[in-house]
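Quick one, tokens below. Sequence please?
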């Protein structure tokens, strides 16, 4: 059986390193940092983000098992209007963060991670005006080497 993206990246520690590196790059970006400077950010944001990405990419169900479901994530990111430039910059930060985090320099892995992140950014922007219309109890989406596998 083929390794999951989670395993190929290096497991839980790799995703904590990636979330840490991405967060640092976002804070350093004059456009992306705006999204992280609002009051009320969760003190465990990096650990939660790492768990979310890990679960979506084939790791254990730690995020959905102890933090929240996909509905929570989509509602958290809704109502912020259109922000395509910020999204493009966030993707660039993610690509660079893969090096910062010391992820394997494997072209297939890096492409899968970046494709996932680009897709996830799009999902987070499906409700730019409000959280109205986001269904309750949405399952965690799962991503594999070929793309989106299932939404739960």
């Amino acid at each position: 059986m083929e390794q999951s993206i989670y395993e190929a990246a290096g497991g839980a520690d790799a995703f904590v390193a990636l979330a840490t590196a991405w967060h640092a790059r976002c804070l350093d970006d004059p456009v992306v940092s705006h999204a992280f400077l609002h009051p009320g950010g969760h003190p465990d944001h990096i650990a939660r983000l790492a768990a979310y990405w890990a679960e979506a990419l084939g790791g254990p169900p730690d995020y959905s098992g102890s933090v929240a479901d996909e509905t929570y994530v989509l509602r958290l990111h809704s109502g912020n209007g259109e922000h395509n430039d910020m999204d493009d910059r966030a993707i660039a930060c993610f690509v660079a963060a893969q090096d910062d985090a010391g992820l394997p320099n494997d072209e297939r892995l890096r492409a899968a991670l970046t494709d996932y992140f680009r897709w996830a950014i799009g999902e987070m922007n499906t409700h730019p005006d409000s959280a109205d219309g986001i269904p309750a109890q949405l399952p965690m989406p799962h991503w594999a080497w070929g793309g989106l596998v299932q939404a739960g």
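The first helix runs from residue 5 to 9. Residues 120 and 141 are 9 Å apart (CA to CA).
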